[in-house]
Design a protein that fits this description.
8-stranded antiparallel beta sheet; 3 domains; 22 strands; 563 residues; 14 helices; alpha+beta; single chain; binds zinc ion
């Protein structure tokens, strides 16, 4: 028995007890060898397993602390969250993305999963729950209780409380396992698991890369390696590795007022099942994803008189520090081109482009900080640009948006502009364009991508509004551009012929774009609820019912019908 124990102990020593522990324990062990065999060792009085300890014993001197939404303490490869009481029960949005992958899985950055979470204190534990906003009923209605019961919030994880801070206004927990174990909601999405025949997590090949805290969000990155029956690349390893990113964003205490979706105006919208309606069946209500643009209290009278006012908080886009200097001004112009559309909604300077502070000015500034929306410049061979956004599932409020700008978008622009306009356009009659020419094209793409982040999808029904011969007219195209919407795939003017001097070659923010922004963003001050807004919103659409320039035609993906 003893011999076995000794062997076990030696094994334990090899696998990680520190030399100091070894030195202390040795003599005790020797002494006991001489005693009766049945006697058990008397262990030093240790705190009971799971007992709450003094703060300094948990957050030791070795801890590296990152201040932010929660304090994040790192001790070696262990991560602790210090959650202030004021943030318990608050709703937080968790956005999970595949940040990096091996080739064959598609490029990183795509959203894998979005969940609303809530941290709760239950006795000696902190419980992390998943909140559902898919099903609702107003809390004044009797059906509310049934909805609450059927919406029982599942538990994502529980954490024993390790310590409290000095004045017991914050609770310390160890969250390492949340990111190192196979918590499905935070890891590789289910469809990918199926596709690559994932059987389990390989814990010894999985680790936390970083956990960073910002004032309104916490960003965790962790590498996950899964055993896979059909890996997309490096098949001989029998595994697939991905770097996951989890953004946890504090949701506003008071959700923004919703605006209901109407299929006659194109908009990125979200759905929710409402059981509170008078109708005999539940119905799905849909509301817009949009920025929170509000009139300042002191400007309400001005706004009512029809004067333009500055919003409480404008939409600000920062240009990534990695963007080549000569292109920055054009990307900025594409962003601020939307100001004319917001003027239709009653706001001036509603959307602004800025340079980020330099590293010397603000070393903590980061595009990962949810307070900053950034046009990111990515050195990648992908010829594309993307404008995704993150929004509050309760209200549709857009919280942040980062536009990904891939360097090779310029190749795409050069090819299009050359093929579609070179016959009449001296600027496009070479394989390399002058900077002003490429700059104008960059501005066009920048405006289109920003349009997506404001809530607008493609309007494929826009370009049919113009008679073909109007596209050869300089006066018409200078006034209206080449399509009523920059959100169409109208691209460049390939209808114009040699001799059509002065004709415009591309769309600007057009009549439809201004209409859509007005419809989605103009505050309706006398409406208490989203329901109250319906009449006005309907009128704004029917006012232009017979004008094809105001028409929306959604992008057809499956079963395409030629209009
Ligand atoms: Zn697009």
């Amino acid at each position: 028995m003893i011999k076995k124990l000794t062997q076990l102990l030696i094994v334990l020593f090899i696998f990680g007890f520190s030399g100091e522990v070894l030195a202390q324990k040795k003599p005790v062990w020797k002494n006991r060898n001489k005693k009766k065999k049945t006697e058990t060792p008397a262990p030093k009085p240790k705190p009971k397993k799971g007992a709450i300890q003094p703060y300094h014993k948990v957050v030791t001197k070795d801890a590296k602390t990152d201040e932010g939404l929660f304090k994040v303490h790192q001790i070696d490869d262990k991560f602790l969250y210090e959650i202030p009481d004021s943030l318990l029960e608050r709703e937080m949005l968790m956005v999970t993305r595949i940040a990096k992958t091996a080739s064959g899985i598609g490029f990183g950055g795509g959203k894998a999963n979005t969940k609303v979470l809530r941290w709760q204190k239950k006795g000696k534990k902190i419980v992390l729950r998943v909140v559902s906003h898919q099903v609702v009923a107003a809390d004044s209605l009797p059906v509310h209780e049934a909805v609450v019961n059927s919406n029982f919030e599942p538990v994502l994880y529980t954490f024993p409380i390790k310590a409290f801070n000095k004045d017991t206004t914050a609770t310390v927990i160890d969250v390492t396992e949340l990111f190192t174990k196979d918590v499905k909601a935070l890891g590789l999405p289910q469809n990918r698991r199926k596709q690559y025949k994932v059987t389990r997590l390989e814990a010894n090949k999985s680790f936390i890369e970083s956990v960073k805290s910002y004032p309104l969000n916490i960003e965790a990155r962790h590498v996950k390696t899964y055993a896979s029956g059909a890996p997309p690349s490096n098949a001989s390893t029998g595994t697939i590795s991905v770097e996951m990113s989890n953004s946890m964003i504090l949701l506003p205490e008071k959700p923004m007022k919703r605006r209901y979706f109407d299929e006659r105006v194109g908009w990125f919208a979200r759905g929710q099942v409402d059981y509170g309606d008078e109708a005999q069946k539940s119905k799905t209500i849909r509301f817009l994803d949009r920025w929170r643009l509000e009139v300042k209290d002191e400007d309400i009278e001005k706004f009512k008189r029809g004067e333009l006012v500055e919003p409480k908080k404008p939409i600000v886009y920062y240009i990534d520090r990695a963007t080549p200097k000569k292109w920055r001004q054009y990307i900025k112009k594409g962003i601020e081109d939307w100001q004319v559309a917001f003027e239709e909604a009653g706001f001036k300077n509603a959307i602004i482009a800025k340079d980020p502070p330099s590293i010397e000015e603000d070393p903590d500034w980061s595009p990962e900080d949810v307070r900053y929306s950034v046009v990111r410049y990515l050195a990648s061979p992908i010829p594309n640009a993307m404008g995704p956004h993150v929004s509050d599932p309760r209200s549709g409020e857009i919280l942040e948006s980062d536009i990904n700008w891939y360097h090779n978008v310029m190749t795409l622009l050069r090819n299009w502009f050359f093929v579609q306009t070179a016959a009449i356009n001296p600027d496009a009659q070479s394989t390399e364009f002058k900077d002003e020419v490429m700059g104008r094209l960059i501005r066009f793409v920048s405006a289109h991508e920003v349009g997506h982040t404001l809530g607008l999808p493609h309007n494929m029904g826009s370009s049919v509004a113009y008679p073909v011969d109007s596209l050869r007219s300089a006066t018409f195209t200078q006034k209206y551009g080449t399509a009523p919407s920059i959100m169409d795939y109208a691209r460049f003017n390939y209808v114009a012929q040699p001799g059509d001097d002065g004709v415009a070659l591309m769309p600007n923010i057009g009549i439809y774009d201004k209409h859509a922004i007005r419809w989605g963003y103009r505050p309706i001050l006398d409406a208490e609820t989203a329901e109250d807004e319906k009449k006005t919103l309907n009128k704004w659409i029917t006012d232009h019912a017979d004008d094809p320039m105001y028409r929306f035609g959604h992008q057809q993906v499956f079963s395409v019908v030629d209009p």
